[in-house]
Amino acid sequence: MSDVNIETVRPSVWRKMRGNTGALIGGTLLAVIILIALLAPLIAPHDPIAQDLTRRLLPPFWHDRSVPEHLLGTDHLGRDYLSRMIYGARVSLGVGLGVILVSGTIGITLGLIAGYFGGWIDLVISFAITTRLSLPIVLVALAAVALGGASLTTLITVLGLLLWDRFAVVTRAAAQSLRHQEFIEGLRAIGASRTRILFLEILPNMRATILVVVSLEVANVILLEAALSFLGLGVRPPTPSWGLMISEGRDNILFDPWLIALPGSALCLLVLAVNLFGDGMRDITGPARK
């Protein structure tokens, strides 16, 4: 029965991806950013937290006062901006992956249980989803991080516990449509356990749908991390974070606007890449394309 996968990502999907401009551009940009983040220790020209006050606020390479050792200049503490930009990609992608692992595990598990069993179990989980949707994410995250202390672990935990609802909603709807399929009825008839039906039969049929949710939710997480770091409730200094870099550069926005423009552009590029890839995968794996 396990070879009957309604929404398994087949090799044809990747062939279709080459014909989808959005998915191709987004996937390429995302792959480049991930590669830069992975190779940060090898390609960063300087230590991202090393300070040199004698070289503070040096401009990027397109200015007359630039120096070859710092292509993108330095910040208010003399730290190399290019190195901090490179390591900042690690933070954004790391937080995105960590939050998705936490929220995805919670949401997918609850959605599977609610969609498969129905009845009062579905009512309880649906009430939990509705309750979560009624909570303002940013305000709750601000309060929780402020109480728990600003750290990478706290940030991932708080956002992970707040962003599971979309996974639950999508998984619940998919499980409801799959639980009456003939291959599921056949598994029940031969005495297959509920655990096997849920996690080895129904869940694999949702892989394409879950992939789309993951790609779209990562962009939301990255923006939330940047917003919290900008407010001083995300990543702690001197850890390089694009949101924190924007916050540190706001005092010099009139005279050194590149301190905000560079990390802001990197953040926009990453979110754009994730959104293009997610939208492209949705178009490729949607019912109309099957």
UniProtKB/TrEMBL annotation:
GO terms for biological process: transmembrane transport. It is found in: Cell membrane. GO terms for cellular component: plasma membrane. It is a multi-pass membrane protein. InterPro entries: BP-dependent_transpt_permease (IPR050366), MetI-like (IPR000515), MetI-like_sf (IPR035906), OppC_N (IPR025966). The keyword Transferase does not apply. The chain crosses the membrane at residues 23-44, 91-117, 137-164, 210-235, 255-277. Signal peptide: none annotated. Keywords: Cell membrane, Membrane, Transmembrane, Transmembrane helix, Transport. Residues 89-278 form the ABC transmembrane type-1 domain. It comes from the Bacteria. Belongs to the binding-protein-dependent transport system permease family. This is Peptide/nickel transport system permease protein. It comes from Primorskyibacter sedentarius.
